[in-house]
């Protein structure tokens, strides 16, 4: 009897069709959303889920899913639009989601499912004290004081199609010196410690509030929307439609504040990702 | 091929970054020698300090550079962002081989030689200058050589704190997944390391008593 069960489980384990591989990019939010997706698939479908989290940047995950090494990961519409599909950022990209969904289906047979409901855009952030003292609310306000200020940006933001050069042109931003290129994680601390005055963080980051930083409003709509959504291989959805049904249940369940709160639980309070995902699913998608 | 075109198109920037990189390594190694060699000599005079000092240098060596930068940013004189912070970190990483080799070189001298020198009436200073340092110069220089060569590689992390250097291409290449860019930074850094190794090797052979 036991050997029969063992044989069955081995046979099932070997059969790739019954195993779903979930990937993630190398930052907390991507890991967290992948864990939520993984647990949702496990509890709704009974399929075995293999986790390949914290893989690398956008391009690593993109190559992994197009090569079939992973079956799904969470991608951002604006990132796919500018960084993967190489479209120009800027006005007129309201229909980013439709454009991205269509091109991904045609080129790689990949499906964009329901977005989670939040927009993780670039947060052009300043110290809260500065914002209050100088009445800064928007990036246009920033352009006023920029000639006396110093900026520090991560290498990705400085070099992306939807990054700093375009932003500077859209708002006429001129800083006292060319922005300092440095590690993204260190920019937060350098800003909080007063070594630089402006950074480009992630708007759903848990650290912004913890370090008393505020994000300025993109009043000229330079950045495309960066809606997070599960990106899944269509072959998997055809073999196992229940995976698609399970993931669609997550659509619209996480707004900006909720994502910030979940990220802060991981990054500021250092809680376990598995536990955060488990508790959130039990509460929000019973 | 892409790499050659990249260098042709960005010649001025490449030269600037190589210059920054060399300056970072030269300044940090010079400071590390100024601190490390006297510290190593001190350890031969105060053997009880050997454990804690070398232990501390060992621990410094294991701190990840980004974590070290994180600690350094708020500090008033050593910290901030830019070249100064990068140099502080590079000095911290260069200390261990210099201190250790100075200590090992001097304490490895045959005690009979030292006693003979004492017997000739040498003071502590004379003993150091005339006997110990010349006899251990090879080992000390080997330590400085290791520190420099490793420093050329480590200096690429300076780009994480806004201090420039060849790491700029590596960080940029990793951010946008462009292998040509990564190579554009890594290749000259490797050549610089080989060059530094060869140069200091020549110096070593010239100084060592045979």
Concise overview:
The complex is a heterodimer of chains A (286) and B (210). With 286 residues, chain A is an alpha/beta fold.
Uncertain stretches of 5 or more adjacent residues of chain B:
none
Ends apart, CA distance between termini of chain B: 47 Å
Helix content of chain A: 40-55%
Helix content of chain B: over 70%
| Structural class by secondary-structure content of chain B | mainly alpha
Largest sheet of chain A: 3 strands, antiparallel
Question: Shape of chain B, please?
Answer: elongated
* Radius of gyration over C-alpha positions of chain A, nearest whole angstrom: 21 Å
**Approximately what portion of the residues of chain B adopt beta-strand conformation?**
under 5%
Spatial order of the strands forming the largest sheet of chain A: 3-10-4
**Average predicted confidence as pLDDT of chain B:** 92
Tell me what the structure shows.
The complex is a heterodimer of chains A (286) and B (210). Helices cover 49% and strands 14% of the residues of chain A. Chain A contains 15 helices and ten strands. Chain A has helices spanning 2-14, 28-45, 58-66, 77-84, 96-108, 128-134, 139-145, 155-159, 164-171, 184-192, 207-210, 234-239, 241-248, 256-267, 273-284; strands at 19-23, 48-52, 72-76, 110-112, 122-127, 152-153, 180-181, 199-202, 213-215, 228-233. In chain A, the strands form four sheets. A three-stranded antiparallel beta sheet of chain A has the order 3-10-4, with helices on both faces. A three-stranded antiparallel beta sheet of chain A has the order 8-5-9. Chain A has a two-stranded parallel sheet with strand order 1-2. Chain A is globular. The two termini of chain A are 35 Å apart. Chain B has helices at 2-9, 11-45, 50-62, 65-72, 83-107, 111-119, 124-154, 167-176, 179-207. Chain B is mainly alpha-helical and 210 residues long. Chain B has nine helices and no strands. The chains are: A alpha/beta (286), B mainly alpha (210). The interface between A and B is medium-sized, with 22 and 19 residues.
